[in-house]
Every structure is written in structure tokens, then in C-alpha cells.
Design goal:
Bound molecules: ligand ANZ, zinc ion
Number of helices: 27
Distance between the termini: 63 Å
Strand content: 15-25%
Number of strands: 37
Largest sheet: 6 strands, mixed
Shape: globular
Structural class: alpha+beta
Radius of gyration: 36 Å
Length: 902
């Protein structure tokens, strides 16, 4: 055995060993694992080429879980793959003139090597890269099935158009009205796109959340995103006619409201700029046309619409109030979304905050129709007060027959009146829109459609799948290169065989991540998207990833799974039974500011920080020039703040085990983690201590294990059969070890890995305190007992730590001889708590005489009152402090003290 801990060799050897025995290949129904399957998976990374600390943390959590469960008898699957399509590859291509395919594959190779250096128990035989035709052909195949069922459909939609990147942007790619990448002012455009009908699944997607072991906040985010709201849809009748002489919308202007109880407070109606009534108003009115045009610029993102300055124009048109028949003016409002409800709202400025703001800008009447539950609150038209919008507590006022009614009663009465006239009914409205999947991008899954002049949009026949994406194109920033690549788009119509043109749009990359975790289960299925192996592994038992995917990715995957279910491919509804969202990794930031206020950020590695005696940072200088830099606070590791720590460098310097130990120890998986150089050093020191401890005893332990094995004792060589005869201090030590083991078991089960590590550290402290034995361990009876307890203790410690620091524990398991009888550590049975070791046979009570501490007495742990009294009076301490005295009273505090009053 090496005297010194050299992580690089230890890790290389352990990894080579696991590879040689193909340790991580997961097999369905593997008889070695009686507890059944456990599928634990991390969200697949985008192959940027470099691991960052967020990855390290994510995968270590996953690995710790996987290894722990495996040792506990579970058949664990932990796969890995690459979310390999998407914009960054195109951007890199433009910057470096290299094809996205080549760039992506070389990044995958780099990242895979870095991952492998972490020693993760990944079954690489199941690796999936979403940019490979074997994978994305099934995106195409399922898309065609969705087309057949009407789940996928073609529609013209209003989309965010980035005029510089020449692409449609998702709402979340529009930031403050500008393209997230280009910074260009986003325009609205109408283009034909394919949509997936996720909204049909909305109820299921909400209701299904109930049974999931997910963080509540993620469930809430999904609920809010779907935004199911119960309200009333009704019409304002009118006599407005279009240029063709017909009534616009059959003489009805529909609105959706969740506050039908406020219907008597309507002082205007506002329609979206894209609404047909707005178009009608614009005929012959250039001022209105100009306003509508102005609204077209700017994103369609809701958050943006909600916060923008309220602006509008009066149309000069009127509709009738459905209950009173009074004329109500129609306005065009920039805060009304065409895509929500009916694209029109009843304006109730007294009780809706947006309407209030709008009415204040344009001086529209504000009519109170709800009185607060607390009579003392007054209403004012000057400023908005919180209670105006309160839904459930007020009662109707100034509302005729509704007066005095509460929310629900008023809504019911209004619905009764409206439906009697055939003007309205209760209605559930969704915020969720169908999923537009067309992207005018090269690096994605080609949409399998052929456009024929005669036949229209014709699906590519299944036997022609996959429609292969050419992998040698280099985008140049001027639109989609597929549209310029004749080899790709020139084809013949599958129906009439005339020359035709392939669709050059590709699919949103969220498609790729919607089912890759099922492909892992049957990665080599050539004739089907998934096969029966998927039924074995899925649903996934534990999914692990960042909170940034709380909404879209998880929602799309849940939808996609249901589509697969409806097509008969799977038999479950929910793909992810449990979800763990790991916290972010943070680090200090350092910067200098130039005269114009522009900041340059310096990597913490290049900075030296001075601390005060309480460890607080007092200042920092750049190592290179020794001049001061400013402290920018602790922030999420990011490129923009240059505060990332490169895992590769860390692993090269300290080894993967140190990086793993530090990230697991520094905080529980779901909390943020603050990077700390001294924390890393501490982790390394602990591993050195562990190594040294084992080094000092490995020969003796190995001999003991061999002797006992030759006596046929085998696996029980790890227990301490002579426990009864142990000295009190050795019994204490065993009790410590088993108590920490029990704590660690509990913490493993609740995934609180930081305290698992601290329990292991305490075990090492205990074992170290036993002292060493001679090499043979055959000396005195005491020595042999110490060796027995050490042998057992170290075997527990190594197993306890194996999931977090698998390399060093593997090496020590072998060096100390445990592997000779017990086999590989990765397959070792999880240590069992010895209940007998936990019970204390003797406990020590503080002895007080007249309330003053005079010493202690040792009694049996289960001693009763009279036994404790007798022990106290017989004790040496009592005779010394109060010789010959008679006790007047004896007070006992169970388990703690005995006080003799004399
Ligand atoms: C009148 C009213 C009075 C409203 C009141 C609210 C409070 P949720 O709950 O998010 O579904 N609304 C309806 N369609 C809209 C559209 N296309 N664009 C913008 N706003 C629209 O919101 C429902 C409420 O959003 C509806 O109820 C409507 O305003 C508004 F004291 O109607 B309410
Ligand atoms: Zn045709």
C-alpha cells in the first residue's frame, strides 16, 4: 500500500477497474438486486464542451444516490446523454466557421472525458445524443403520429420575430422587448407554424401534479403556468357592421372575466390591438391604424404586456351593457392580449388594477361596485388600494339586484341573467398556449413534411424516416442554411411524385428533451421509439436537475409522455415520480471599474483576499499586479461575472473525490452552495487523514480478516463477536460508530448528504481516538479488542463514504483486505446498525451533594430508583464529601444526575 494518498493514481486505478468489470451496466430484472429497479437520472446537459460546477454538483448528488441504493440492493439505472441540438452550436459555427455537428461531437467527447474523471456510476452503454439520426427519427415519427391525431397542427400565429437573428423567439427569449441574443427590438410576425396541442391536456397536467413527489414550489409554478381560471364568458351585444355590411362577430363582443360580480362597474370595454373590432375602428382612421401598428412592435410575452405603460385609443364605437342596455364605449388597449380569453375585457377600473391604471390615464369613470368587508375602509378614485381587487370578502353595492350579494352568489346571479338572454355562461380559461414547435433554424430535428404544389403539405412516409439533417452546413447568420441547401430541400412528393420542397423548419429543442430519458431505457431499439425495457425502468424514480427547468421542460415532458400513452407506447401518465432541484453554486465576485463605469470581472482564482480575525473579507488584490480589486458579493457562478471554478482544474489538482466530498459536505442538495477554497482544502485533509488511518492499520486488519476467514467466519468477520467482553471505552467507541451509522442512514434516506458526510467524519474521529495497535494486532487482549473494533469501524466508515468518495474508499477496501472476503466495495452490502451496540450497559450520573457537584456514579442503564440511591450512597465521592452523614432526601434527574441532600 502507498504510504501517501495520491488521488490521481487512486482514481485512475479505481476507474480502470470499474470499466474492466463493466460495473455500471444496468440490466433489467438483474437477480443480484432483490429490491427491484430504481431509475435515478440527471437532466441531460447541453454539450458546451466544459463541465461547470453546477454539473459536478448535479451528477454527484445523482451518483451518491445511485451508489447508495445499489449497495442497498436496488437495481439502479443512472444513464447520461447530450442535449445536442440548439442555438449555441450555430453561434459557435458563425464565430469559428466550423460546422455545428463537428463542434457538437467534439464537445461531447471533451465533456464525456471530464465526466468520466469524476468516477460517476454511469451506464455509458445507454448514452444518447439527441443530434443523432437514430434518436431524432423518433421525434419525427411521433410528430407524424400527432399530425394524424390532430395533436399537431399547422396554424398561423403571431410570433416574436428577431430581425437580426432572423428567427422566431420563444417568449422567454424576449427580454425587455429585445432578442435575448441579438438585443434587437423584437417584432411581431404572422407565420405558419406547427403547434402541439398541449392545452388539451391542461386539466390532466394540473391534476397529475397532486400525486408527485416534487417540491411544492415547482408544482405551483406549473400550475400558474397552465393558469386554469374559472370565470364567465359573455357578450356585449352591438350593431357594428364591417365593410361587407355584416355584423362583426354576429353582433356580439365577447369578453372573459373572473369577476362577473363586478359587471355593474363596467365603464368601458377594451379590445386587443389585433381584435377585429380594432380593425373595424381603424378603417378611415389613420390615427387608430397608427396606434395598432405601434403595438405590433414589441414582444408578445405576457410578463412584458402586463408591466408595460397602459396605452390606448377610443374607437368611437359603442356596445350595449348586457344587463342594463346602456351604451359602453369601446377602447383599444395595449394591455389586452389577443391570445388570452377572447382578446377583449370588460373594463372595471374600480376593481381591476390594470383597468384602474388605464382609466386614470384617460380619465374614464371609475365606479365602485364592491364594498369592503371592513366598513372602515374608504374608496377613492385617486390611488389604487389593495382591497379594491379583493375577490372573496366584499359584497356588491351600487349594483341593483346584486346589492348585498357576496362573490359567488353575485356571479351565479349574473350567469343566470346572462344565460337567460343567451349571452353568456361559466367558462374555464387557460393561460397555457399550444406549443409552437417550428423553428427557422438549422441545428435541430427536421420537421418531416414535404411541400407539393399540387398536394400541399404532405407527411414524409414512415419508411423514409429519418429525414436526415445534413451535418456539414455552416450557418452564416443570414437565415436558415437548410433553406439554401438544395441537396436537402429538393425532393419529390410522396403522393404525386412531382418535384417538391422539403420543410426546412426544425423542431424546438424542447422536443429533444421531452423523452430522451425513455430512450435511455432501450437505446438500441431500431424498430421502435421505446420497447418493453421502458416499461421496466419507467416511470423514473428520481429526477435531478436545476430549478430553471421547473416549468417548460418538465411540462413538455409530462405532455409528451401522455401523447405516447395515448398512442399506446407507454402505460403510465407521469414520467418523473420524484424530483430534486439542486441549489445553485455560488462564488465570490471581484471587479474593477473603469472611468465609464464598465466593470471587468476577475476570477476568484486570480485574486488574493484578506480577512479580518473573524474571517470576514476585508479587501482583495489581483495576484498578477497586487493592486486592489473590489468585492462584488457572492453570486451564482457564471461567465458574465467570471466567478466560475473550473472542475477540470480542481480534479487535476485535488482529485475527483475531494471535489465530490466538498460539494456534498458544504450544503444539503437543495440549498445554494458557496464555493470555498478552504473548504476544498479541508475536504482534502479529511481524505488524507482517512488514508493515514487506514495505512497505519491495513496490515493488522488484513491479517485479522484472513485469520477469521480461515476459521470460516467470513462476512461476520466485520462484526465484533466479543463485544460483551469489551472495555467500557471500546464499547463507547462502538456505540458511537453505530449511532453515527444510524444517523447517516436516516440522512441518506432523506437525501441530506451533507450530514451523511459529517457523520462519517465523526466516525473517523472516534476510530482515531482508539489509538493504534501493533502490526500483528496479536499482542495483548486489549490490542486485539482495539483491532476488532477498528476493523469493524473502518469497514462501516468505508461503506458509509463509498457513495460520496468512491475512489479512495475502493482503494482502501482493497488494501485493508476487505475485498478478499467481501468482494468489491461497490457491491458490498450496506452496513447494518447493531442495535445491541447502541444500548449503554452503564451510564454515568453526576453526583451532587446539597446541590454541589462532587463527582459521578456509574449505574446500570436500566437501574431503578432504589438501585441509583444505593449506588450514590455507596460511592466513594459521597463518602469523601459527606463522611458518615445521613441523607434527608435524594433527588434523581433521570439519565443525568443524582442530588443527595444531607
Ligand atoms: C373584469 C375584472 C374585474 C377582472 C376585476 C378582474 C378583476 P386570470 O385570473 O389571470 O384568468 N382579461 C381577460 N381577458 C384578457 C385579455 N385577453 N388580456 C388581458 N386581460 C384579460 O385573469 C382574468 C382577468 O383578466 C379577467 O377578469 C379580465 O379582467 C382580464 F375586478 O374582468 B377581469
Ligand atoms: Zn404532390
Amino acid at each position: 500500500m502507498q504510504e501517501k494518498y495520491i488521488p490521481q493514481t487512486v482514481e485512475r486505478d479505481a476507474q480502470a477497474h470499474w470499466t474492466a468489470i463493466d460495473a455500471w451496466r444496468a440490466l433489467e430484472n438483474d437477480p443480484r438486486f432483490p429490491k427491484g429497479k430504481y431509475y435515478a437520472c440527471s437532466m441531460l446537459p447541453y454539450p458546451s464542451g466544459k463541465l461547470h460546477m453546477g454539473h459536478v454538483r448535479n451528477y454527484t448528488i445523482n451518483d451518491m444516490m445511485a451508489r447508495h441504493l445499489r449497495m442497498n440492493g436496488w437495481n439502479v439505472l443512472m444513464p447520461m446523454g447530450w442535449d445536442a441540438f440548439g442555438l449555441p452550436a450555430e453561434n459557435a459555427a458563425m464565430a469559428n466557421g466550423v460546422a455545428p455537428a463537428a463542434w457538437t461531437w467534439s464537445n461531447i467527447a471533451h465533456m464525456k472525458a471530464q465526466m468520466q474523471s469524476m468516477g460517476l456510476a454511469i451506464d455509458w452503454s445507454r448514452e444518447v445524443a439527441t443530434c443523432s439520426p437514430e434518436y431524432y427519427r423518433w421525434n419525427q415519427w411521433l410528430f407524424l403520429r400527432m399530425l394524424e391525431r390532430g395533436i399537431a397542427y399547422l396554424r398561423t400565429g403571431s410570433v416574436n420575430w428577431d430581425p437580426i437573428d432572423q428567427t422566431v423567439l420563444a417568449n422567454e427569449q424576449v427580454i425587455d422587448g429585445r432578442g435575448w441574443r441579438s438585443g434587437a427590438l423584437v417584432e411581431k410576425r404572422e407565420i405558419p407554424m406547427y403547434y402541439l396541442g398541449i392545452s388539451k391536456y391542461a386539466d390532466e397536467l394540473i391534476d397529475g401534479l397532486d400525486g408527485l413527489g416534487w417540491p411544492d414550489r415547482v408544482k405551483t409554478m406549473q400550475q400558474n403556468w397552465i393558469g386554469r381560471s374559472e370565470g364567465v364568458r359573455f357578450a356585449f351585444p352591438h350593431r357594428l357592421r364591417g365593410e361587407d355590411g355584416n355584423l362583426v362577430g354576429d353582433g356580439r363582443l365577447y369578453v372573459f372575466t373572473t369577476r362577473a360580480d363586478t359587471i355593474m362597474g363596467v365603464t368601458f370595454v377594451a379590445v386587443a390591438p389585433e381584435h377585429p373590432v380594432a380593425a373595424l375602428a381603424a378603417t378611415g382612421r389613420p390615427d387608430i391604424a397608427e396606434f395598432i401598428e405601434r403595438c405590433r412592435a414589441g414582444g408578445v410575452a405576457e410578463a412584458e404586456v402586463a408591466t408595460r405603460e397602459k396605452e390606448g385609443v377610443p374607437t368611437g364605437l359603442f356596445v350595449d351593457h348586457p344587463l342594463t342596455g346602456e351604451p359602453v364605449p369601446v377602447w383599444i388597449g395595449n394591455y389586452v392580449l389577443m391570445s388570452y380569453g377572447d382578446g377583449a375585457v370588460m373594463g372595471v377600473p374600480a376593481h381591476d388594477e390594470r383597468d384602474f391604471a388605464f382609466a386614470r390615464v384617460y380619465g374614464l369613470p371609475i365606479k365602485q361596485v364592491i364594498a369592503p368587508a371592513q366598513a372602515a375602509l374608504a374608496f377613492s378614485t385617486e390611488a389604487w388600494a389593495d382591497w379594491y381587487g379583493e375577490k372573496t370578502n366584499g359584497v356588491c353595492v351600487h349594483s341593483g339586484e346584486l346589492d348585498g350579494l357576496g362573490y359567488q352568489a353575485a356571479v351565479d346571479r349574473v350567469v343566470e341573467r346572462l344565460s337567460a338572454q343567451g349571452l353568456g355562461e361559466k367558462r374555464t380559461t387557460l393561460r397555457l398556449r399550444d406549443w409552437g414547435v417550428s423553428r427557422q433554424r438549422y441545428w435541430g430535428t427536421p420537421i418531416p413534411i414535404i411541400h407539393c404544389d399540387a398536394c400541399g403539405a404532405v407527411p414524409v412516409p414512415d419508411e423514409q424516416l429519418p429525414v436526415v439533417l445534413p451535418d456539414d452546413l455552416v450557418p452564416d447568420g443570414s437565415g436558415n442554411p437548410l433553406a439554401k441547401d438544395e441537396r436537402f430541400w429538393r425532393t419529390t412528393c410522396p403522393r404525386c411524385h412531382a418535384p417538391a420542397r422539403r420543410e426546412t423548419d426544425t423542431m424546438d429543442t424542447f422536443v429533444d428533451s421531452s423523452w430522451y430519458f425513455m430512450r435511455y431505457c432501450s437505446p438500441d431499439a431500431t424498430h421502435a421509439m421505446v420497447d418493453s425495457r421502458n416499461d421496466y425502468w419507467m416511470p423514473m424514480d428520481q429526477y435531478i436537475g436545476g430549478i430553471e427547468h421547473a416549468v417548460l421542460h418538465l411540462l413538455y415532458a409530462r405532455f409528451w409522455t401522455r401523447v405516447m400513452r395515448d398512442i399506446g407506447l407507454v402505460r403510465f401518465d407521469e414520467p418523473f415520480s420524484n424530483l430534486l432541484t439542486q441549489g445553485m453554486v455560488l462564488n465570490d465576485t471581484f471587479y474593477r471599474e473603469d472611468d465609464s463605469g464598465r466593470r471587468t470581472w476577475f476570477n476568484p482564482d486570480d485574486v488574493e483576499v484578506a480577512h479580518d480575525d473573524k474571517g470576514r473579507p476585508t479587501g482583495a488584490v489581483l495576484k498578477s499586479d497586487h493592486a486592489a480589486v473590489s468585492l462584488g458579493g457572492i453570486e451564482k457562478m457564471s461567465k458574465s461575472k467570471n466567478n466560475g471554478i473550473d472542475p477540470k482544474a480542481q480534479i487535476e489538482q485535488y482529485g475527483a473525490d475531494t471535489a465530490r466530498l466538498f460539494t456534498m459536505f458544504a450544503s444539503p442538495p437543495e440549498q445554494t452552495l458557496e464555493w470555498s477554497g478552504s473548504g476544498v482544502e479541508g475536504a482534502q485533509r479529511f481524505l488524507r487523514r482517512l488514508w493515514n488511518f487506514a495505512y497505519g492499520r491495513h496490515e493488522a486488519i488484513a491479517i485479522r480478516l484472513r485469520d477469521r476467514a480461515s476459521e470460516g467466519i467470513g462476512a461476520s468477520a466485520l462484526t465484533v463477536p466479543e463485544a460483551d467482553g469489551l472495555s467500557e471505552s471500546l464499547r463507547d467507541a462502538r456505540r458511537d460508530v453505530h449511532t453515527h451509522l444510524r444517523q447517516a442512514d436516516f440522512d441518506y434516506s432523506r437525501r441530506q448528504y451533507n450530514t451523511v458526510v459529517s457523520a462519517a467524519m465523526k466516525v473517523l474521529n472516534t476510530l482515531e481516538s482508539l489509538g493504534a495497535t501493533s502490526t500483528s494486532g496479536q499482542g495483548s487482549a486489549t490490542e486485539s479488542s482495539i483491532l476488532a473494533v477498528s476493523t469493524e469501524g473502518l469497514s462501516i466508515l468505508l461503506r458509509l463514504l463509498a457513495p460520496v468518495v468512491p475512489h479512495i474508499t475502493h482503494a482502501l477496501w482493497v488494501e485493508c483486505g476487505y475485498a478478499d472476503t467481501g468482494g468489491d466495495l461497490i457491491n458490498a452490502a450496506w452496513p447494518q446498525v447493531d442495535e445491541a451496540a447502541l444500548t449503554r450497559s452503564q451510564i454515568s450520573l453526576v453526583l451532587q451533594i446539597n446541590g454541589k457537584v462532587r463527582g459521578s456514579v456509574s449505574v446500570a442503564a436500566d437501574a431503578d430508583r432504589s438501585a441509583i440511591e444505593a449506588a450514590a450512597l455507596a460511592s466513594e465521592a459521597f463518602h469523601r464529601a459527606a463522611p458518615g452523614q445521613m441523607p434527608k432526601k435524594i433527588i434523581i434527574v433521570a439519565g443525568r444526575l443524582v442530588n443527595v441532600v444531607v
